[in-house]
Amino acid sequence: MPTHVKCDGQSALVDKALFNPESNKLHLLSMLSSREATRAVWAMGVQGKPLMLELEGKWRALGFAEMTMKHEKLPCGRRHMLVVSKEAYASRVVIGRSLEEVEDRVWAKVTRIARVPLHQTWKTWTLEQLNLTRLEGLGGIFGVVLSGVDELERQVCEAIKAGTLCV
User: Fold this and answer.
1) Mean per-residue pLDDT for 26-45?
2) Stretch 85-105: mean pLDDT, rounded?
3) Which SS3 state, helix, strand or coil, does residue 53 take?
4) Are strands 10-20 and 3-7 parallel, antiparallel or unpaired?
5) 118 in a structural domain
């Protein structure tokens, strides 16, 4: 069943969305509709008003702050608009097509940005140490908000000293 977003009497078809179920903060919204409807949804979000997203037959109010938008006119005459949070652009949101893919992408990102070298055998332990906020996704996408990388250096050093991690 198709999912929709509504605001100010306008409606758009949603093919992908990613949001925090606890804070109701939207991180990604991909929608298709008329030019007027997609602009109305964008304007509502910019004004800080909640968007109503249909989830399994029920409506849920979601908001977004500091978003960026890209839109494109399709050959059929409709508009596609992709709205992404600045937090996602700042690489704090990791997105994938499965939870396993998200986990692999988090590991790859952490090994690039961590100030200490991380061994592949430490992957499970490292992911447990991070503060990952799981996001709810629609349209076959999954995601997490990544934080806790700054404390990782101290945690790795302590785990090596304690014998939890082997060098």
Assistant:
1) 88
2) 88
3) strand
4) antiparallel
5) yes
Tell me how far apart the alpha carbons of residues 27 and 45 are, in angstroms, rounded to a whole number: 12
- Are the C-beta atoms of 59 and 76 separated by less than 8 Å? no
- Tell which wins on pLDDT, 123 or 89: 123
pLDDT tens digit string along 7-24? 778 889 999 999 999 999
Which sign does the torsion angle of CA 40, 45, 46, 49 carry?
Answer: positive
Write the DSSP assignment of 73-95 as a string of letters.
E-TTS-EEEEEEEHHHHTT-EEE
Among 78, 12, 15, 76, CA closest to 45: 12
Name the domain boundary from 38, 66, 88.
88
Q: Assess if residue 76 is contained within a domain.
A: yes
- pLDDT value at position 1? 59
Do 63 and 102 sit in the same domain of this protein? no
Structure tokens at 53: 């997203």
- Taken in order 80, 137, 100, 107, is the CA torsion positive or negative? positive
Q: Is 45 helix (H, G, I), strand (E, B) or coil?
A: helix
Cα–Cα dist 15/97, whole Å = 14
167 pLDDT more than 80:
no
Whole domain around residue 67: which residue ranges?
A: 3-88
